[in-house]
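> @MW can you paste both from yesterday?
MW: sure, first one:
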Amino acid sequence: MAQSSSSKKLIILGALFVVSIVGLVIWNQNRQSQHQELVIGISPPFAHPLQAAAKEAEKQGIHVKLVEFSDWNTPNITLNNGDIDANFFQHQPFLSNAIKEGGYKLKAFGMGAASHVGLYSKKYKSLDELPQNARVVVPNDPVNQGRALLLLQQAKLIQLKDPNNYLSKLSDITVNPKNLKFIEVEGPQTARAIDDVDLAFGYPHYLRLAKTADPNSALLLDDTTNKRYAILFVVRDDYEDKDGKLKKFIEIYQNSPAVKAAIDEDIGPKLWFPGWV
């Protein structure tokens, strides 16, 4: 009986040892898999094209995880902390300002699409109809506010101290004949604020996502095709692109017909242009 009991104990111990080894192997495989995964932080309006790129990348053995952020601050904080490999939501002026203000160690790695921006209204059909003291929504961050003010200047609604300064702020307005009243909100919220004001600066992809206005219904679109506003793939300064995964993913994004179709659908064929050519 004692010998039989000892044998059973050995069998149980042996089985536990095997289970432990198998568990360690599985854990290690999962760890390696997660390490090989390319994790990119994004804003929701850019999800569809990047999902299309990720689907094609998977066929080439590149595993991509997309993490969505609802604001424009957390993606850079998270990237700077090393919790993601890259992010995709900002253009160069925004990145430069974020680095200046936040002290981030970040850099651009690749170029994405750039979109036009517009002035939208659900109350008026032309800029000429805009009344005195009209309420106008603009972004509250320095970079996109500057872009909005340049567009309002293009519309001849205001005049700026330096007509070419893309970092102009509200205090730089020197002429405001209609006495426009400006309401500052976070960039992503401009699309939702359009229902409550007379005029709103807007991004086509955010308007389409919010379903508050047709992106093609702008009273005026900006006339610039400056690639400074192309959305960037951003990484840490010390980022090492192991096996060229991110480089390959960006090439897929830039060249895939499926990605182009997704951008056309989300922004509008006439409302965007490639920032990499």
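MW: second:
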Amino acid sequence: MMNLTQEQKRQLNSYSIYIGEPAHPLFTLKALKSDPESALRIVRAISGTDNSAVAASYFSRRIGMFTAMQLYTLIIYEEIWDGPEDALQFGAAEEYGKLSVSLFLDGGDYVMVEQAERPKIVRNLLRAYVKEVSDTLRTVSAASSLTHWENMFGFLLYHLHVLLSDPGTAPDAEAVMDILKDGRTWEGLAKESLFAKYLRGSRPSLLLNTTVRTTCCHSKDVPGLIQCGYCPLKQ
């Protein structure tokens, strides 16, 4: 995957992930983890909200899209992006007529993953892009850890719905979903599999457009955005 196909780039672009340098760089993942207060101040300015919890959730939805795409890429191509944290950049980009925080990376940092490595890789993805980001954001905002986890799960839920519905990808999607539901994957990350708890024994396809979330992602509180379809506050 050193040379991404146009289809692979299109898939990434559809989730606000772009190959190359941002025209308007904001900060890197490494910078976020070392100075979350400065990074969140920038996110507040771009998103148009003064509420730190809303801005933190807005940002974790953005990196949640990337984490879900990492798992999608693992299933489809048996590859993941494995670049350093200072190479994972966030930049200001216009999307649907609104300035947004988008993610930029080097397409040459993708590596192959053997099937036997999947449990370790899935755990590492959860740790680096959700657990550590959540822990960091919670030092400067009131958004809960579960809010950040559920922000990623929402995107993953749709990916699994699509992949499990295709006979060609269903076996690998099922294998990765089993890893995500396995409590051993979550040792050191949470007391139990938060994804298994999120599914509540249901298949992903049955949970689409339902109030599967237990926390609000605050999308409805960001100027220009609307309430998400999984919101527990949905009327």
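> thanks! The CA atoms of residues 44 and 81 lie 27 Å apart.
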